[in-house]
């Protein structure tokens, strides 16, 4: 079975155009990233392990494949994902503690102690978390299992000789991948490989082999004849991951797509606020293997509403794009097209 089709929770790229949210795809993914950022801040303050944060972030993306952002605020969903993850990942936290830190983050306070446990705000946050958790359980079909690219990276670090900065950078990229929908598009090994290859490329510098060369099916040097007096070249360090896993063409295309999404995400960030991202954003993306709409744009260029295509009797979006899987408690996701489009 292909590594790209071994989970019911992996969606095709075009499914992102058919989510229940009414807003544009760019706006939805922008708000998802903000939701994951809030989730990470909440989990870090609760001192949760990385596994719980990654699990919760994956659930947030799965949730919004079934329910619209307009009906469920990203912060409520993030808090519900965190609270559920503290139970499934065996790092339990009290509901009141999650609610207090939630309120602390909203008010931008430094200490949860500044908010009494029995305050009205904490009670309201607690109620919102529990209500959202009920919907989250339905959205997940009570399937809590999540695999992380971090586990794949640990194996790579153990088997591949790479400088510590490459390992640290790849680990950070894997964290950032949860700010994108990669966790519901590709399996962990594909994401881990994309993060590792991109980390290598940034560390090696602009004069090193391109991303295309690093993820090609065969090494460029393999096409050159080996003189009789020379030994075959040693394995290329820039291709060690691709050659280790012997990816097929479909999987290599998935790695290229994952790299495209990561680079597009980084390119949309404000370099004045995050100047250190320029080294990543300046990396040329590999050749495109699929056609898709733009996922990310600078915040001031995001169009909040989706384009309204004219209906010329063609197949409806639900038929052509496909819907998210049916829940055991309900039907498929509704058509994202508004009933009364605004002029």
From TrEMBL:
It holds the Pfam family Cyclin_N. The keyword Nucleus does not apply. InterPro entries: Cyclin-like_dom, Cyclin-like_sf, Cyclin/Ssn8, Cyclin_N. The keyword Transmembrane helix does not apply. Keywords: Cyclin. Residues 37-131, 151-261 form the Cyclin-like domain. GO terms for biological process: regulation of transcription by RNA polymerase II. Residues 225-235 have a biased composition (Pro residues). GO terms for molecular function: cyclin-dependent protein serine/threonine kinase regulator activity. Residues 210-236, 297-343 are annotated as: Disordered. Belongs to the cyclin family. PANTHER family: CYCLIN. This is Cyclin-like protein. It comes from Coprinellus micaceus (Glistening ink-cap mushroom).
């Amino acid at each position: 079975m292909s590594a790209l089709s071994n989970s019911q929770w992996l969606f095709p790229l075009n499914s992102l155009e058919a989510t229940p949210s009414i807003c544009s795809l760019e706006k939805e993914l922008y708000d998802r990233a903000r939701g994951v950022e809030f989730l990470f801040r909440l989990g870090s303050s609760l001192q949760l392990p990385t596994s719980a944060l990654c699990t919760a972030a994956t659930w947030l993306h799965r949730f919004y494949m079934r329910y619209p952002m307009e009906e469920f605020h990203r912060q409520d969903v993030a808090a519900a994902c965190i609270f559920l993850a503290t139970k499934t990942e065996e790092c339990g936290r009290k509901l009141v503690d999650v609610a207090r830190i939630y309120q602390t983050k909203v008010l931008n306070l430094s200490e949860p102690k500044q908010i009494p446990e029995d305050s009205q705000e904490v009670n309201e946050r607690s109620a919102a978390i529990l209500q959202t958790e009920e919907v989250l359980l339905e959205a997940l079909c009570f399937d809590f299992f999540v695999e992380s690219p971090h586990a794949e990276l640990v194996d790579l670090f153990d088997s591949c000789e790479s400088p510590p900065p490459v390992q640290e950078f790849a680990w950070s990229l894997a964290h950032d991948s949860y700010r994108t929908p990669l966790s519901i598009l590709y399996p962990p090994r594909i994401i881990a490989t994309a993060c590792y290859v991109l980390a290598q490329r940034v560390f090696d510098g602009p004069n090193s082999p391109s991303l295309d060369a690093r993820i090609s099916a065969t090494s460029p040097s393999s096409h050159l004849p080996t003189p009789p007096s020379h030994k075959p070249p040693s394995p290329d360090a820039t291709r060690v991951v691709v050659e280790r896993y012997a990816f097929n063409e479909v999987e290599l295309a998935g790695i290229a797509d994952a790299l495209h999404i990561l680079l597009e995400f980084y390119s949309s960030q404000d370099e004045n606020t995050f100047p250190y991202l320029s080294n990543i954003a300046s990396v040329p993306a590999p050749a495109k293997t699929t056609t898709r709409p733009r996922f990310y744009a600078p915040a001031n260029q995001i169009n909040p509403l989706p384009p309204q295509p004219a209906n010329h009797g063609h197949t409806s979006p639900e038929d052509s794009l496909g819907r998210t899987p049916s829940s055991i408690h309900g039907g498929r996701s509704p058509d994202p097209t508004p009933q009364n489009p605004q002029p």
